[in-house]
Amino acid sequence: MTSSETIAATIPVTIEDVRAAHARIRDSIVRTPTFISKTLSELTGATVYLKFENLQFTAAYKERGALNTLLQLDEAARAKGVIAASAGNHAQGLAYHAHRLGIPATIVMPTNTPIVKVTQTEGHGAKVVLQGDTFDAAYAHARQLEQECGFTFVHPFDDARVIAGQGTVAVEMLEDVPAIDTFLTPIGGGGLISGMAVVAAAADHPIEVVGVEAELYPSMYNRINGTQYPCAGDTLAEGIAVKEPGGITSAMVRQLVDEIVLVGERSLEQAVSLLLQIEKSVVEGAGAAGLAALLEHPDRFKGKTVGVVLCGGNIDTRLLANVLLRDLARSGRLARLRIRLQDQPGALFNVVRIFSDQRVNIIEVYHQRVFTTLPAKGLITDIECEARDRAHLDRLVAALKAADYEVTPVELA
């Protein structure tokens, strides 16, 4: 057998499975567009095509694998119902399509799951069971209920039917843009990239498949490369914060994926912000991981025609606001300047006059007289302000220093 035939014989999902899945689900999902981003292409040096899976009804690609699985259940399994352990996009995708098909669905979530996710999942018609403080505890309880109640467990990624469904993303991308030569895909448990890699391997031209993980959760990277980097921490890409990838998906990634790259939190924040500013599209941290990789590793993808999946758009609005404000601060458009003053009449007025002269808008002023190491007649003033850009802010700081003020920018981490 040829090498491609050897690979096909050892993996549980074939291109025929993916094509069959697409025929099965395509009338019941959103045919999301794949558009070129000229601005991001200029910014990164690659030709960047974005697949807007955040436009699915539940705002994530997870509907595809869940629906493909549901449609293959026999009548007895449908009557008993399905169960899953998830606090994220898989829960909503499964709940939505199960309800639409008249299949009872139970979703087990950790007790600390945000109430908005519980409410959204219940709103799609599922019964939510809160169990345990961790995902592992919720997962164990779901498997217990599976046995006790005769439910069919629908795994979020480690199931051939789910993987085939997720692979339909790549089918549509290549139908829309046959010239794509690189798939840049987020990895959590590995279902999406496994399905897409099957499609890439069967294409009529070479397509490189590159996975992206958050630096804080390099679980698949560890599995494939034999490393032991820790998987812990608060990542913006919570949708791919998986400590243990799947067994099926790990084997498929090992055979079909060319490389896995890691991205830091700053790149993820920048990617979320850029997608909102440039593409006017709300994308969660995991969904922005592909763009984050282009920003952090530009030389790796320069000159390539890259297909990036914006795999989800479910991000908390308060978190999104924080990300946008932090990005403004890093770009110099928002700043907090710490200025040393003498505690005497007119001191603040004289400083504010410089801000006015430089046409920099003041947002907040914080005076600190007590909790400071300065002499009793000294004080610290923090002024939050808004400039046009970094150069405008630098001119303000230079003007303050020229007036003999001691100025220190309060930097973000």
The largest sheet, given as strand count, sense and whether it forms a barrel, is: 6 strands, mixed
Measure the end-to-end span. 54 Å
Which runs of at least 5 residues are low in confidence (pLDDT < 50)?
1-7
Based on secondary structure, the structural category is alpha/beta
Helix content: 40-55%
Task: Quote the average pLDDT.
Answer: 92
Strand order, main sheet: write it out.
1-2-10-7-8-9
Q: Tell me the number of helical segments per DSSP (H or I, 4 or more residues long).
A: 18
| Global geometry | elongated
The radius of gyration over CA amounts to 25 Å
Beta-strand share of residues: 15-25%
Number of DSSP strands?
14
Describe the structure using short key phrases.
413 residues; four-stranded parallel sheet; 14 strands; 19% strand; elongated; disordered N terminus
Give a short overview:
The chain is α/β, with parallel strands linked by helices and 413 residues long.
Element layout with pairings:
Layout: H1 3-10, H2 15-25, E1 34-36, H3 38-44, E2 47-52, H4 62-70, H5 75-80, E3 82-85, H6 89-101, E4 105-109, H7 115-123, E5 127-130, H8 135-149, E6 152-153, H9 160-176, E7 182-186, H10 191-201, E8 208-214, H11 219-225, H12 247-256, E9 259-263, H13 265-279, H14 289-296, H15 298-301, E10 305-310, H16 317-330, E11 334-342, H17 347-357, E12 361-368, E13 378-386, H18 390-402, E14 406-409
Parallel strand pairs: 2-10, 3-4, 3-6, 4-5, 7-8, 7-10, 8-9
Antiparallel strand pairs: 1-2, 11-13, 11-14, 12-13
Helix pairs in contact: 2-9, 4-6, 4-9, 9-10, 10-12, 13-14, 13-16
